[in-house]
Please model this.
Amino acid sequence: MSKASMRRRWQQVDGVLLLDKPRGLSSNDALQKARRVFQAAKAGHTGTLDPLATGLLPVLFGEATKFSNLLLDSDKTYEATLQLGVTTTTGDAEGEVLDTRPVTVDEAAIRAVCARFIGPISQVPPMYSALKYEGKPLYEYARQGIHIERPAREITIHALDVRRVAGSQIDIVVHCSKGTYIRTLAADIGAALACGAHLTALRRTQSGGLDVADAYTLEGLLAIEESARSNVLRPVDSLLAHLPRIDLEPALATRFGHGQALRAPIDARGPVRVYGERFIGTGVIDEGGALRPQRLVSQIDTDAD
Model:
Protein backbone atom coordinates (compact mmCIF):
# COMPACT_ATOMS: atom_id res chain seq x y z
CA MET A 1 0.00 0.00 0.00
CA SER A 2 1.36 3.42 -0.95
CA LYS A 3 2.06 6.18 1.54
CA ALA A 4 -0.68 8.26 -0.04
CA SER A 5 -3.29 5.54 0.43
CA MET A 6 -2.10 5.02 4.02
CA ARG A 7 -2.64 8.73 4.67
CA ARG A 8 -6.16 8.49 3.30
CA ARG A 9 -7.01 5.89 5.94
CA TRP A 10 -6.66 8.39 8.79
CA GLN A 11 -9.99 9.83 9.87
CA GLN A 12 -11.37 12.41 12.27
CA VAL A 13 -11.94 10.69 15.59
CA ASP A 14 -12.90 12.66 18.70
CA GLY A 15 -13.00 11.14 22.16
CA VAL A 16 -11.12 9.63 25.07
CA LEU A 17 -9.78 6.09 25.23
CA LEU A 18 -8.81 4.61 28.58
CA LEU A 19 -5.94 2.33 27.63
CA ASP A 20 -4.36 -0.25 29.92
CA LYS A 21 -0.75 0.03 28.74
CA PRO A 22 1.20 -3.24 28.74
CA ARG A 23 4.67 -3.64 30.16
CA GLY A 24 7.47 -3.28 27.63
CA LEU A 25 5.93 -0.57 25.46
CA SER A 26 6.77 3.10 25.71
CA SER A 27 3.81 5.43 26.12
CA ASN A 28 4.32 6.71 22.58
CA ASP A 29 4.43 3.17 21.15
CA ALA A 30 1.18 2.35 22.97
CA LEU A 31 -0.35 5.60 21.72
CA GLN A 32 0.57 4.84 18.10
CA LYS A 33 -0.85 1.32 18.33
CA ALA A 34 -4.12 2.67 19.74
CA ARG A 35 -4.19 5.37 17.10
CA ARG A 36 -3.89 2.78 14.35
CA VAL A 37 -6.73 0.72 15.85
CA PHE A 38 -9.04 3.71 15.42
CA GLN A 39 -7.27 5.16 12.34
CA ALA A 40 -7.36 8.48 14.18
CA ALA A 41 -5.85 11.47 12.41
CA LYS A 42 -4.77 13.16 15.65
CA ALA A 43 -3.90 11.64 19.01
CA GLY A 44 -2.03 12.37 22.22
CA HIS A 45 -1.68 10.95 25.73
CA THR A 46 -1.76 12.48 29.18
CA GLY A 47 1.21 11.58 31.33
CA THR A 48 4.08 9.32 30.32
CA LEU A 49 4.49 5.83 31.71
CA ASP A 50 7.91 4.18 31.53
CA PRO A 51 8.18 0.96 29.48
CA LEU A 52 8.49 -0.94 32.78
CA ALA A 53 5.13 0.43 33.94
CA THR A 54 1.62 -0.76 33.14
CA GLY A 55 -1.80 0.67 33.69
CA LEU A 56 -3.95 3.66 32.92
CA LEU A 57 -2.85 5.72 29.92
CA PRO A 58 -5.66 8.05 28.79
CA VAL A 59 -5.37 8.47 25.02
CA LEU A 60 -7.01 11.57 23.54
CA PHE A 61 -8.23 11.70 19.97
CA GLY A 62 -9.00 14.76 17.89
CA GLU A 63 -10.71 17.59 19.78
CA ALA A 64 -10.01 15.89 23.13
CA THR A 65 -6.29 16.71 22.76
CA LYS A 66 -7.15 20.34 23.53
CA PHE A 67 -7.83 19.36 27.14
CA SER A 68 -4.80 17.18 27.85
CA ASN A 69 -3.48 19.62 30.46
CA LEU A 70 -6.41 18.77 32.74
CA LEU A 71 -5.12 15.24 33.23
CA LEU A 72 -1.45 16.20 33.14
CA ASP A 73 -2.14 18.45 36.13
CA SER A 74 -4.28 15.93 38.02
CA ASP A 75 -3.39 13.67 40.94
CA LYS A 76 -2.39 10.06 40.18
CA THR A 77 -2.49 6.74 42.03
CA TYR A 78 0.13 4.00 41.57
CA GLU A 79 0.78 0.49 42.80
CA ALA A 80 4.52 -0.15 43.10
CA THR A 81 6.92 -2.87 44.17
CA LEU A 82 10.29 -1.90 45.69
CA GLN A 83 13.33 -4.13 45.97
CA LEU A 84 15.36 -3.15 49.01
CA GLY A 85 19.12 -3.57 49.16
CA VAL A 86 19.88 -2.80 45.51
CA THR A 87 20.28 0.57 43.79
CA THR A 88 20.41 1.00 40.01
CA THR A 89 21.41 3.70 37.54
CA THR A 90 17.80 4.35 36.51
CA GLY A 91 16.07 3.78 39.83
CA ASP A 92 14.22 0.78 38.38
CA ALA A 93 14.89 -2.76 37.22
CA GLU A 94 15.96 -1.64 33.73
CA GLY A 95 19.14 0.03 35.00
CA GLU A 96 22.55 -1.32 35.86
CA VAL A 97 23.21 -2.26 39.48
CA LEU A 98 25.18 0.42 41.31
CA ASP A 99 25.32 -1.00 44.82
CA THR A 100 24.13 -3.95 46.88
CA ARG A 101 23.68 -3.81 50.65
CA PRO A 102 22.28 -6.11 53.31
CA VAL A 103 18.69 -5.46 54.37
CA THR A 104 18.38 -5.50 58.14
CA VAL A 105 15.29 -3.33 58.71
CA ASP A 106 12.05 -4.86 59.93
CA GLU A 107 8.49 -4.17 58.85
CA ALA A 108 7.88 -1.64 61.62
CA ALA A 109 10.90 0.41 60.52
CA ILE A 110 9.80 0.23 56.87
CA ARG A 111 6.31 1.49 57.72
CA ALA A 112 7.69 4.27 59.91
CA VAL A 113 10.05 5.50 57.18
CA CYS A 114 7.36 5.37 54.48
CA ALA A 115 5.05 7.44 56.67
CA ARG A 116 7.65 10.22 56.72
CA PHE A 117 7.16 10.77 52.98
CA ILE A 118 3.46 11.62 53.29
CA GLY A 119 2.69 15.31 52.71
CA PRO A 120 4.54 18.05 50.83
CA ILE A 121 8.11 16.96 50.01
CA SER A 122 10.98 18.02 47.75
CA GLN A 123 12.01 15.62 45.01
CA VAL A 124 14.90 15.79 42.55
CA PRO A 125 13.80 14.45 39.13
CA PRO A 126 15.85 11.48 37.91
CA MET A 127 18.48 11.80 35.19
CA TYR A 128 16.71 9.06 33.26
CA SER A 129 13.63 11.15 32.53
CA ALA A 130 12.09 13.02 29.62
CA LEU A 131 12.54 16.41 31.25
CA LYS A 132 14.34 18.78 28.90
CA TYR A 133 17.66 20.56 29.47
CA GLU A 134 18.77 22.92 26.70
CA GLY A 135 16.28 21.25 24.36
CA LYS A 136 17.36 17.65 25.00
CA PRO A 137 15.75 15.05 27.28
CA LEU A 138 17.77 14.33 30.39
CA TYR A 139 17.98 10.63 29.52
CA GLU A 140 20.07 11.47 26.46
CA TYR A 141 22.68 13.12 28.69
CA ALA A 142 22.48 10.19 31.13
CA ARG A 143 23.19 7.69 28.35
CA GLN A 144 26.30 9.71 27.44
CA GLY A 145 27.49 9.68 31.05
CA ILE A 146 26.84 13.42 31.45
CA HIS A 147 25.41 14.52 34.79
CA ILE A 148 23.11 17.56 34.85
CA GLU A 149 22.23 19.30 38.10
CA ARG A 150 18.45 19.28 38.57
CA PRO A 151 16.64 21.58 40.97
CA ALA A 152 14.36 19.92 43.50
CA ARG A 153 10.64 20.26 42.89
CA GLU A 154 7.83 20.48 45.42
CA ILE A 155 5.35 17.60 45.16
CA THR A 156 2.75 16.15 47.50
CA ILE A 157 2.30 12.55 48.55
CA HIS A 158 -1.34 12.50 49.63
CA ALA A 159 -1.22 8.90 50.83
CA LEU A 160 1.37 6.12 50.96
CA ASP A 161 0.04 2.74 52.03
CA VAL A 162 2.40 -0.17 52.66
CA ARG A 163 0.38 -3.16 51.46
CA ARG A 164 2.92 -5.95 51.87
CA VAL A 165 6.40 -6.56 53.21
CA ALA A 166 7.91 -9.85 52.04
CA GLY A 167 11.58 -10.12 52.95
CA SER A 168 13.37 -7.42 51.00
CA GLN A 169 10.36 -6.57 48.80
CA ILE A 170 7.71 -3.94 49.56
CA ASP A 171 4.38 -3.37 47.85
CA ILE A 172 3.04 0.16 48.23
CA VAL A 173 0.13 2.25 46.92
CA VAL A 174 0.88 5.93 46.33
CA HIS A 175 -1.62 8.73 45.77
CA CYS A 176 0.37 11.76 44.65
CA SER A 177 0.39 15.12 42.89
CA LYS A 178 1.50 15.76 39.35
CA GLY A 179 5.24 15.66 38.72
CA THR A 180 5.92 12.82 41.15
CA TYR A 181 8.49 10.24 40.07
CA ILE A 182 7.80 6.91 41.79
CA ARG A 183 11.31 5.71 40.84
CA THR A 184 12.76 8.61 42.79
CA LEU A 185 10.41 7.97 45.69
CA ALA A 186 11.58 4.34 45.78
CA ALA A 187 15.24 5.41 45.80
CA ASP A 188 14.57 8.00 48.52
CA ILE A 189 12.79 5.43 50.70
CA GLY A 190 15.73 3.07 50.23
CA ALA A 191 18.18 5.82 51.19
CA ALA A 192 16.16 6.63 54.31
CA LEU A 193 16.31 2.94 55.26
CA ALA A 194 20.11 2.99 54.72
CA CYS A 195 20.00 -0.04 52.41
CA GLY A 196 18.99 1.45 49.07
CA ALA A 197 16.08 0.40 46.84
CA HIS A 198 14.84 0.38 43.29
CA LEU A 199 11.50 -0.07 41.55
CA THR A 200 10.71 -3.50 40.09
CA ALA A 201 7.05 -3.00 39.13
CA LEU A 202 4.74 -0.02 38.66
CA ARG A 203 1.09 0.23 37.71
CA ARG A 204 -0.96 3.43 37.39
CA THR A 205 -4.49 2.78 38.59
CA GLN A 206 -6.01 6.27 38.59
CA SER A 207 -5.55 9.63 36.90
CA GLY A 208 -7.87 12.41 37.97
CA GLY A 209 -11.32 10.82 38.11
CA LEU A 210 -10.41 8.02 35.67
CA ASP A 211 -9.78 4.44 36.76
CA VAL A 212 -7.88 1.57 35.15
CA ALA A 213 -10.82 -0.72 35.97
CA ASP A 214 -12.60 0.96 33.05
CA ALA A 215 -9.63 0.70 30.66
CA TYR A 216 -9.14 -1.54 27.61
CA THR A 217 -6.05 -3.50 26.65
CA LEU A 218 -4.76 -3.35 23.07
CA GLU A 219 -5.75 -6.99 22.62
CA GLY A 220 -9.22 -6.25 23.95
CA LEU A 221 -9.67 -3.41 21.46
CA LEU A 222 -8.66 -5.59 18.54
CA ALA A 223 -11.17 -8.22 19.64
CA ILE A 224 -14.02 -5.72 19.20
CA GLU A 225 -15.66 -5.51 15.77
CA GLU A 226 -14.22 -2.52 13.92
CA SER A 227 -17.67 -1.01 13.43
CA ALA A 228 -18.27 -1.08 17.20
CA ARG A 229 -14.92 0.18 18.48
CA SER A 230 -16.03 3.80 18.64
CA ASN A 231 -18.48 2.74 21.38
CA VAL A 232 -15.60 2.35 23.84
CA LEU A 233 -14.58 5.99 23.45
CA ARG A 234 -15.72 8.47 26.05
CA PRO A 235 -16.95 11.88 24.89
CA VAL A 236 -14.54 14.80 24.83
CA ASP A 237 -16.30 16.51 27.74
CA SER A 238 -15.87 13.45 29.98
CA LEU A 239 -12.52 14.96 30.98
CA LEU A 240 -14.35 17.98 32.37
CA ALA A 241 -16.99 16.43 34.60
CA HIS A 242 -15.42 18.03 37.69
CA LEU A 243 -16.00 21.56 36.32
CA PRO A 244 -19.24 23.54 36.86
CA ARG A 245 -21.54 23.37 33.83
CA ILE A 246 -23.04 26.39 32.03
CA ASP A 247 -25.79 26.07 29.42
CA LEU A 248 -26.26 28.99 27.03
CA GLU A 249 -29.20 29.90 24.84
CA PRO A 250 -28.46 29.67 21.09
CA ALA A 251 -27.56 33.34 20.46
CA LEU A 252 -25.15 33.46 23.41
CA ALA A 253 -23.73 30.04 22.53
CA THR A 254 -22.91 31.33 19.05
CA ARG A 255 -21.15 34.39 20.45
CA PHE A 256 -19.17 32.30 22.93
CA GLY A 257 -18.24 29.83 20.19
CA HIS A 258 -16.85 32.76 18.18
CA GLY A 259 -14.56 33.68 21.06
CA GLN A 260 -16.57 36.51 22.61
CA ALA A 261 -16.73 37.12 26.35
CA LEU A 262 -20.16 37.13 28.00
CA ARG A 263 -21.70 38.04 31.33
CA ALA A 264 -21.58 34.79 33.33
CA PRO A 265 -25.06 33.38 34.00
CA ILE A 266 -23.97 31.83 37.32
CA ASP A 267 -22.36 33.29 40.43
CA ALA A 268 -19.04 31.46 40.31
CA ARG A 269 -15.37 32.06 39.59
CA GLY A 270 -12.76 29.97 37.80
CA PRO A 271 -12.92 27.37 35.02
CA VAL A 272 -16.24 26.04 33.72
CA ARG A 273 -17.51 23.82 30.89
CA VAL A 274 -19.90 25.47 28.47
CA TYR A 275 -22.73 24.04 26.34
CA GLY A 276 -25.18 25.29 23.75
CA GLU A 277 -27.00 22.60 21.86
CA ARG A 278 -23.88 20.58 22.52
CA PHE A 279 -20.48 20.98 24.18
CA ILE A 280 -18.73 24.19 23.07
CA GLY A 281 -15.59 24.21 25.20
CA THR A 282 -14.20 25.58 28.42
CA GLY A 283 -14.24 29.07 29.77
CA VAL A 284 -13.10 31.02 32.80
CA ILE A 285 -15.26 33.31 34.91
CA ASP A 286 -13.08 36.19 36.05
CA GLU A 287 -13.36 38.29 39.20
CA GLY A 288 -15.60 40.74 37.38
CA GLY A 289 -18.10 38.03 36.50
CA ALA A 290 -17.19 37.84 32.81
CA LEU A 291 -17.23 34.43 31.13
CA ARG A 292 -14.24 34.28 28.79
CA PRO A 293 -13.61 31.44 26.28
CA GLN A 294 -10.56 29.32 27.02
CA ARG A 295 -10.58 26.15 24.86
CA LEU A 296 -13.18 25.83 22.11
CA VAL A 297 -13.93 22.71 20.09
CA SER A 298 -15.18 22.30 16.57
CA GLN A 299 -18.88 21.53 16.71
CA ILE A 300 -18.66 17.78 17.13
CA ASP A 301 -21.24 15.39 18.50
CA THR A 302 -20.67 14.63 22.17
CA ASP A 303 -22.81 12.96 24.77
CA ALA A 304 -23.21 15.70 27.34
CA ASP A 305 -23.76 14.51 30.85
Notes: The domain at 243-296 is CATH 2.30.130.10 (Archaeosine Trna-guanine Transglycosylase; Chain: A, domain 4). The radius of gyration is 22 Å. Confidence is low (pLDDT under 50) at residues 301-305. Residues 23 and 54 are 5 Å apart (CA to CA).
